[in-house]
């Protein structure tokens, strides 16, 4: 296990959809260990492989003393209930903006050995699973903000110590629609 550097907002890997994992091998198990170790070292609730520069569909989580990972997650939502609260990202350090998410989520995928797993989350776990799955699609939580909140977030980012004005990042509209309820990956029942 090795703590890895986290890619920051502006790095193209964060905007590139990740590939499905097809080989459940030692390399994947080492990636999972690196994700968990790096996430814990940074004090995060979750960390996706693209944040380490690896374009594979896997993320780790550590919410309410539940630590784990999921490979090739597919999300579904059991209801329409939503939550709105502060959200941050290890790739956008120090920035926290209220972001709407679904209150409840079911993630189906695999563990590091290729065995099927299901993660049922509510509240913070649901937010984490949605946030990390967004990373796997090249989407950042900033993409889910309305214009006013996005403008405020970009103002905070430009004044952040880590921001590099020579490589200004861009914010794009989410391919899943504004907010949580757009079409695509995040539609109920999918």
TrEMBL record:
Q: State one Pfam family annotation.
A: Pep_deformylase
Q: Where is this region: Disordered?
A: 168-190
> Which processes are annotated in GO (biological process)?
translation
Residues engaged in binding Fe cation: 89, 131, 135
Q: Which reaction does it catalyse?
A: N-terminal N-formyl-L-methionyl-[peptide] + H2O = N-terminal L-methionyl-[peptide] + formate
Domain of life of the organism encoding this protein: Bacteria
Which EC number(s) does the record attach to this protein?
3.5.1.88
* Keyword Repressor belongs to the record: no
Name the needed cofactors: Fe(2+)
Q: Keywords of this protein's UniProt record, alphabetized? A: Hydrolase, Iron, Metal-binding, Protein biosynthesis
Q: What class of enzyme is it?
A: hydrolase
Per its UniProt record, what InterPro entries does this chain match?
Peptide_deformylase, Peptide_deformylase_sf
**Cofactor note (record):** Binds 1 Fe(2+) ion.
Active site, per annotation = 132
Q: Which GO terms describe its molecular function?
A: metal ion binding; peptide deformylase activity
* UniProt key word Iron: yes
Concerning HAMAP family, the annotation shows:
Pep_deformylase
UniProt lists the family membership as follows: Belongs to the polypeptide deformylase family.
What role does it play? Answer: Removes the formyl group from the N-terminal Met of newly synthesized proteins. Requires at least a dipeptide for an efficient rate of reaction. N-terminal L-methionine is a prerequisite for activity but the enzyme has broad specificity at other positions.
**NCBIfam families, per database record:** pept_deformyl (TIGR00079), PRK00150.1-3 (NF001159)
Protein name listed in UniProt: Peptide deformylase
């Amino acid at each position: 296990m090795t703590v890895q550097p986290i890619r920051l907002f502006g790095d193209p890997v964060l905007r590139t959809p990740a590939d499905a994992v097809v080989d459940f091998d030692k390399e994947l198990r080492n990636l999972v260990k690196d994700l968990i170790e790096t996430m814990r070292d940074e004090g995060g609730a979750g960390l996706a492989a693209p944040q380490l520069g690896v374009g594979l569909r896997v993320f780790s989580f550590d919410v309410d003393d539940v630590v784990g990972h999921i490979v090739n997650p597919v999300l579904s939502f059991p209801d329409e209930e939503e939550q709105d609260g502060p959200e941050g990202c290890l790739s956008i350090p120090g920035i926290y903006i209220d972001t709407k998410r679904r209150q409840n989520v079911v993630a189906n995928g695999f563990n590091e050995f290729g065995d099927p797993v299901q993660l049922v989350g509510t509240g913070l776990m649901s937010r984490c699973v949605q946030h990390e799955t967004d990373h796997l699609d090249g989407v950042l939580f900033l993409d889910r903000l309305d214009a006013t909140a996005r403008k405020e977030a970009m103002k905070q980012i430009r004044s952040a110590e880590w921001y590099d004005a020579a490589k200004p990042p861009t914010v794009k509209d989410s391919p899943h629609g504004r907010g949580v309820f757009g079409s695509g990956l995040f539609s109920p029942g999918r």
